[in-house]
């Protein structure tokens, strides 16, 4: 998954597959029954370091919440040669997490795996480049040298197809796990993660931008929770408890990001940079509830889109019916347990990451949104965000314009995505805390930006 200067991201060798309904047996997963001893479970990471990407689980582990729920969870980092999917399929009492595309690949390989939830409801996959190259859309990749990891070719192919671009129009190479080739300008863009490599480069002061593949058609999950069919049959109630506690850990970690980052560095990964981990944790917060405020849940439509993408690239590797390897019921039950206990299964506890909620952060129907955007000169909805490019006379003027945005953004507690190329300032507005949708708050901020001084 993710790494940084100290924790290199390991190649996701685990071939995995999504899983839908049934196979579930056993009763409900309430915490009422007393167990003679905690149920032992292994949580196998797909990364060689316990970093901010797993902050919710680490928070729950550190505070003893798993044991309170009758579980003895051992969180295990990956080794460079580990096949995570096979480890989960063959290891006793093992839960894994992996990219949804790799999970599908594992199921296609015949491994008896079932997906039961997801940490991130959207993929952080992106292409990182230096801002001076102006790579903001798939069309900007034409003629460029692009380095991709083994787990990113399907995503790139989907994005290029959606944009009507043929792969031969760019030079695609196999990416190394490190940012050296990008920093040395040996490639123009390199696969990375918005919550990891991109954050690391920004923290180090490099002028980089990121093209989020999710914004241009790539639908997938990241850090899917999955187990073997046999473990699901024998320990369903324990797995529901695991999901409920893990979800609770995520809500707590995101409610106090600085404390969660310190916990990661001080307790689990002393070699990592604290500022980097805190920035990573803040950047991944929107992914936790990107599709639904119900933490950990999945949607069939996303799995279908991911499976279709996989099948286009792997026609020779058939995958069996989705109802055999997807089970949505555990994550839903985990959320009901949280609600019945008087807690919240939604992202309400995550609000402090974004600051106070704005009463205008409300959704509009398609007609209302279209009418509002029509009143904003030069603004348009593109890839699910409200966007406009402002042109100033030179670079200092562009920087001054960005600085002029600060007071109004702070006053509204709403902040745009900003990418600059010399005298151009590209703004993108979306409300993370409303499911990554354009809301009335985005419209209002765009209106106020328009009132600022002209070039």
Would you kindly provide a brief summary of this structure?
The protein is of the alpha/beta class and 455 residues long. The chain has 3 domains: 39-122 and 220-353, Periplasmic binding protein-like II (D-Maltodextrin-Binding Protein, domain 2), CATH 3.40.190.10; 125-216, Periplasmic binding protein-like II (D-Maltodextrin-Binding Protein, domain 2), CATH 3.40.190; 366-450, Transcriptional coactivator/pterin dehydratase (Gyrase A, domain 2). The chain has helices at residues 55-62, 65-68, 84-90, 100-108, 153-162, 180-183, 197-203, 229-234, 236-255, 257-268, 274-288, 300-313, 329-340, 351-354, 366-374, 395-412, 440-450, and strands at residues 39-44, 71-76, 94-98, 113-120, 125-130, 145-148, 171-174, 189-193, 208-212, 222-228, 380-382, 385-391, 417-421, 424-429.
């Amino acid at each position: 998954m993710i790494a940084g200067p100290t924790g290199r991201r390991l190649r996701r060798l685990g071939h995995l597959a999504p899983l839908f309904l049934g196979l579930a047996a056993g009763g409900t997963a309430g915490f009422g029954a007393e167990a003679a001893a905690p149920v032992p479970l292994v949580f196998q990471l797909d990364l060689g370091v316990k970093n901010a990407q797993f902050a919710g689980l680490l928070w729950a582990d550190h505070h003893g919440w798993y044991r309170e729920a009758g579980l003895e969870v051992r969180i295990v980092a990956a080794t460079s040669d580990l096949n995570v999917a096979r480890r989960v399929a063959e290891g006793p009492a093992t839960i894994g997490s992996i990219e949804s595309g790799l999970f599908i690949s594992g199921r296609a390989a015949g491994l008896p795996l079932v997906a039961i939830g997801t940490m991130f409801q959207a993929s952080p996959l992106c292409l990182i480049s230096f801002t001076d190259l102006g790579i903001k859309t798939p069309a900007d990749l034409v003629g460029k040298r692009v380095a991709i990891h083994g787990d990113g070719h399907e995503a790139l192919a989907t994005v290029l197809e959606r944009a009507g671009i043929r792969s031969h129009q760019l030079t695609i190479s196999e990416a190394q796990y490190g940012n050296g080739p990008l920093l040395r300008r040996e490639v123009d863009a390199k696969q990375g993660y918005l919550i990891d490599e991109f954050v690391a480069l920004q923290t180090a002061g490099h002028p980089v931008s990121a093209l989020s593949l999710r914004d241009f058609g790539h639908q997938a999950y990241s850090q899917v929770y999955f187990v073997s069919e046999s473990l699901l049959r024998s320990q369903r109630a324990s797995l529901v408890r695991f999901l409920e506690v893990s979800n609770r850990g995520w809500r707590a970690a995101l409610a106090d990001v600085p404390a969660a980052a310190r916990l990661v560095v001080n307790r689990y990964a002393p070699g990592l940079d604290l500022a980097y981990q805190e920035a990573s944790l803040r950047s991944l917060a929107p992914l936790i509830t990107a599709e639904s405020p119900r933490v950990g849940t999945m949607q069939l439509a996303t799995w279908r889109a991911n499976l279709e993408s996989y099948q286009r690239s792997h026609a020779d590797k058939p995958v069996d019916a989705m109802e055999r390897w997807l089970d949505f019921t555990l994550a839903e039950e985990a959320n009901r347990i949280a609600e019945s206990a008087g807690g919240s299964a939604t992202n309400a506890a995550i609000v402090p990451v974004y600051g106070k909620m704005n009463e205008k952060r409300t959704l509009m129907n398609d007609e209302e949104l279209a009418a509002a955007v029509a009143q904003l000169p030069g603004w348009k909805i593109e890839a699910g965000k409200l966007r406009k490019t402002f042109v100033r006379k030179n670079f200092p003027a562009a920087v001054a314009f960005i600085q002029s945005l600060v007071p109004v953004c702070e006053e509204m507690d709403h902040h745009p995505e900003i990418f600059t190329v010399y005298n151009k300032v590209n703004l993108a507005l979306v409300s993370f805390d409303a499911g990554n949708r354009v809301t009335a708050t985005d419209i209002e901020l765009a209106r106020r930006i328009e009132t600022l001084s002209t070039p």
